[in-house]
């Protein structure tokens, strides 16, 4: 029994998520220690069950995220008017609430990214390896496609008639406005992720418990309130890709690049800001 237990522990913990997003970030010792940067390539992960388990968790979480949020969007679009549905506020709550719930559920398994932009930002900060980052992004995109596909399966006609939850730049706004909204919106999200999971902050403010999924979900809610009228709010390339593939109309692809370029720029800026300005990591003397 001891041998079997050791094997299970190795499979689960040999290649752990470098930067958990959630309660796992708060369970470290109060004595702060700067975690070492993740290696660029970690081929040994490919032999660990915990690596594939984390990818499956990202797939399921993104699947559920698209299922609930796109279904909510379709409900609002089908209603005769905003007062007959949950409206824009309800859509924003659906996105923010699902992120809160899903990050809480998956934090201890995969880190609870559920967004390629978040994964990209954490990768730039050397919180996870390139191997894991690429795997996560692939699984997130596949989960998003399946989630949107299930919604279409429930109501194919209304789904196509009401835009399928696909992100497009709204009439009256330029592509530049849409790109800017996605950059700033993703910056807010990824900056919140870094702040809510900062090990140094958790150690310094240990007397003030922080449930990391709550501010992250709330950030998603607020960004949606601000940018739904502009782009429908992407800030998550997997969410935008899944809806665009299943909806598959020309106008859904015309501005699709914005929903990859914008979030990735926003995530990169947030990572740089947190690491260089807030934490000043490059300027710390090595002892």
Task: Give the key terms.
Glycerol uptake facilitator protein; mainly alpha; about 290 residues
What does this structure look like?
This protein is mainly α and 287 residues long. The protein has helices spanning 2-13, 49-78, 87-106, 116-124, 130-154, 156-161, 175-196, 199-204, 213-231, 237-247, 250-254, 258-278. Helix 2 (49-78) runs parallel beside helix 5.
What's this entry about, in short?
Belongs to the MIP/aquaporin (TC 1.A.8) family. PIP (TC 1.A.8.11) subfamily. With 287 residues, this protein is an all-alpha fold. It is built from twelve helices and no strands.
The coarse overall form would be: globular
Whole-number tally of structural domains: 1
Order of helices and strands: HHHHHHHHHHHH
Task: Tell me about the largest β-sheet.
Answer: none
Topology:
Elements: H1 2-13, H2 49-78, H3 87-106, H4 116-124, H5 130-154, H6 156-161, H7 175-196, H8 199-204, H9 213-231, H10 237-247, H11 250-254, H12 258-278
